[in-house]
């Protein structure tokens, strides 16, 4: 026996919207036979989900410290009043405004993290009697919230050699084969719609080089009863140099920020989401040197038609 199917249609190709924009489309309902119903409802909801890392706070604390989600957006509308739907396809239009639950609170970007998630979705339901299944469908949509840069954009030069490596003893430093890497990043204050850029130059290295990598790291911070849990995890890693690269050759640093898995830097009383860049040089013996750059991300207001 065929069942009733629902599908969201007519939304933007990317499902991306800015705060206070209208989200519109239609629900395509396919009925294998005529049915009666108690109304067709659309709910839309946004929330921040927080989870503690067992590695940071311990398994017991992580399991029992359930943090209640913070609601950002919540609403519902009746798409169709009670009645009947005949056999065949039905297009039921809807529209709502993507606005925050609290009047003066900004809606943060959609963000899919490991321990923090900012999620927006809508659910369409055909309400039927108590003993009948009420068909429903859920659809995520993405909020891209324009923000302002917190500081000026400026180039940051760097130079890495055994002399400025941290976290090693004097004896260990004396055993390290000599190397010198120089370069720059074009800015640590970055627009999410533009690439992260710079360059690195291998001036000299006594050991052969195996790989040069660019790593984007998310840092998620959640407060809990004993303090705050801080967890850094990799978002993506891009190889920008392979093998024993030519000395004194400028190697471009170029990386696009992935949609959904990055967002404007978030700092609230309940949680924080920050980002860092690591430039990693891996030697042929698998030892590696890392130069770390905390970065601040923001989003310039642009037409939300990006693919």
UniProtKB/TrEMBL annotation:
It comes from the Eukaryota. This is Down syndrome critical region protein 3. Belongs to the VPS26 family. InterPro entries: Arrestin-like_C (IPR014752), Vps26-related (IPR028934). It comes from Amorphochlora amoebiformis. GO terms for biological process: intracellular protein transport. Pfam families: Vps26.
